[in-house]
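Task: sequence design from structure.
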């Protein structure tokens, strides 16, 4: 039996949020169950892109402040991290996302340490996945004692819903995310990658969802804000998602990205085995994505084609390079030649660590086809 606590919270008022969250944590057994004094605690936010808080695409910065302050009061040292969207390279740089989302400002004010997953690089995890035997996950997760997942309650124009399970996709740094999107364009296959990530992380005991202002319609970035006034807390990401969908009036059988997690026992899915504490009445006039009602099958080859079209690779601009070798030493797979700075794209795992660490911005993300770079530059103007 799993437990999901749902509290009503109609604004991002700091005291109200902290009171509600602390009350739920107490009902789950108290903070000491999750965070011990002196532990490093990473808040895994949803930082999908450089989106302002009022767009409701990212975990709200005040929500991050509330959870971070609570963790500090429990004796933990707070880290805040994510890697922004990577399917369309260069349009969602993580550094910029931290600034535009307001999360960098909050972190600086509160003494939280920002962890840009693209900067710290990945570790290789051997897994027994259905689609691959290895996974590159941010080092940040290995370097802390506890991870607390802070997803945003949102719709998804292709996957219908995105919440606690999907939020872990950001644990894959850089453009590697695009590869997983391409290898699994079908939501059932893509769900396998999500299950792999959850299986590979074993220090994440708590999930706290920002459903105060949710995103409805064509999420996860192009929908509209909806004042849902909810905070959901659980030890079980799958149960939490199931209850969030119930409130959003989403039939759980119509969300294929979660099916692999159900099959592979990431959490409890059976509704009769989920104890809910709080008000789970349906959110009125909540808009679901068009795809939810459509009978048209999705053309996944087209999806793959779009990802391929926008595919970018890191390229060292020789004229700008000052030969410091930071990128060479940081590359986890030794793909950059020390002498020539040429990148071996057969070994490169698209983690973006080199791009993030170069102090003189000598590493650019470019397609090898010129006209694609023009299209991407134009598209990024509209990605706001
Ligand atoms: S980090 Fe930048 S400046 Fe340093 S070697 Fe690499 S490309 Fe050149
Ligand atoms: S060259 Fe190395 S550091 Fe740069 S993206 Fe590829 S794998 Fe990452």
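Answer:
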């Amino acid at each position: 039996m799993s437990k999901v606590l749902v509290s009503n919270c109609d604004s991002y008022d700091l005291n109200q949020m902290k009171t509600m969250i602390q009350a739920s944590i107490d009902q789950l057994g108290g903070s000491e169950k999750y965070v011990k004094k002196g532990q490093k605690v990473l808040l895994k936010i949803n930082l999908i892109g450089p989106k302002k808080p009022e767009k409701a695409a990212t975990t709200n910065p005040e929500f991050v402040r509330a959870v971070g302050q609570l963790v500090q009061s429990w004796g933990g040292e707070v880290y805040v991290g994510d890697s922004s969207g990577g399917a369309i390279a260069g349009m969602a740089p993580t550094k910029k996302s931290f600034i535009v989302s307001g999360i960098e400002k909050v972190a600086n004010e509160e003494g939280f340490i920002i962890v840009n997953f693209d900067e710290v690089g990945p570790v290789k995890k051997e897994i027994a996945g259905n689609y691959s035997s290895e996974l590159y996950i941010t080092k940040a997760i290995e370097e802390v004692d506890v991870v607390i997942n802070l997803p945003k309650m949102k719709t998804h124009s292709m996957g219908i819903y995105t919440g606690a399970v999907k939020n872990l996709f950001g644990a894959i740094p850089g453009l590697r995310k695009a590869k997983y999107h391409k290898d699994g364009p079908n939501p059932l296959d893509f769900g396998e990658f999500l299950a792999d990530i959850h299986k590979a992380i074993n220090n994440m005991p708590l999930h706290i969802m920002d459903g105060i202002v949710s995103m409805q319609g064509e999420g996860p970035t192009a929908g509209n804000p909806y004042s849902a006034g909810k905070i959901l807390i659980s030890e079980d990401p799958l149960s939490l998602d199931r209850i969030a969908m119930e409130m959003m009036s989403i039939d759980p059988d119509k969300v294929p990205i979660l099916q692999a997690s159900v099959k592979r026992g990431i959490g409890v899915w059976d509704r009769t085995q989920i104890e809910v504490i709080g008000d789970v009445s349906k959110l009125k006039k909540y808009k679901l994505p068009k795809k939810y009602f459509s009978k048209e099958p999705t053309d996944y080859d087209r999806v793959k084609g779009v990802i391929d079209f926008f595919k970018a690779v890191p390229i060292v601009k020789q004229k700008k390079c000052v030969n410091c070798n930071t990128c060479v030493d940081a590359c986890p797979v030794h793909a950059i030649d020390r002498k020539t700075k040429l990148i071996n794209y057969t070994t490169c795992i698209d983690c973006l660590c080199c791009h993030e660490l170069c102090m003189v911005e000598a590493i650019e993300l470019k397609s090898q086809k010129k006209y694609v770079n023009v299209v991407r530059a134009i598209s990024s103007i509209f990605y706001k």
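Residues 306-380 form a domain with the Alpha-Beta Plaits fold (CATH 3.30.70.20).
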